[in-house]
Amino acid sequence: ADIPEFVADGIVDSGITGRDLVEEVGRPVEVLADLGFGGCRLSVAASEESGITSIDELPAGARVATAFPRLARRYFQESGLEVSVVPLSGATEIAPHIGLAEVIVDLVATGSTLKTNGLREIATVLESTAVLISNCDLLHDPAREPEIRGLAAALESVVQARSRRYLMANVPRSALADVRRILPGISGPTIVEVMDGDEHVAAHAVVDAVEIYRVIGELKAIGAEGVLVTKIERLMP
Questions:
Q1: 3-class DSSP state of 222
Q2: 56, 140, 154 from 236: Cα distances, Å
Q3: How far apart are CA 1 and CA 7, in angstroms?
Q4: pTM
Q5: 74-126 confidence digits (pLDDT tens)
Q6: Which residues of the chain have a pLDDT value below 50?
Q7: Per-residue b/e over 175-192, b at no fewer than 16 CB within 10 Å?
């Protein structure tokens, strides 16, 4: 939670923290990249025994216990609901059971903690992942901006590469229309001549990792040979 403060005050140039904390602190920082890990959501949750299944069922002036008072107030104001926010620093899950609040606003990853405490989600306030942030003044400094943008590009290239694979295969020259359909890639497959390969050419493409076995199966079905798949270290589209 201190990182947005340090970055905004210029104590550090950049930092990595959760989007939820950036929004909660509310300091002027620039989000440069979504790093794709630490995924969670800030949710409204009520006790199972309360019978509340949506925020529309909350009574006027309902108490909301949370460690994210700024985000909670904003969410309910934008929803047109009048609530009383009760700031807490921990043990938010017990608030409805001891009569401190009707609902809570808390971070949820799998939902198992809520279930353990007899709570259920009734609304999502914010989706959050780890983000790279920067001091805003640095982005207006010609001497420093390239360094900051370069850092963001370097980290994003790794994030982009993580879910992709590089695929190479010898494919029939007569089936290039099918290859183009099977391997859309970033801007289409790269086709390379194969030495002494009158009937075959080499097709290279970047493929989503989750699609790799389907793609291989379709390539084999049109006569592809020598399929090779490798991980990508960095990808800069």
A1: coil
A2: 45, 24, 9
A3: 11
A4: 0.81
A5: 999 999 999 999 999 888 999 999 999 999 999 999 999 999 999 999 999 99
A6: none
A7: beebbeebbebeeebebe
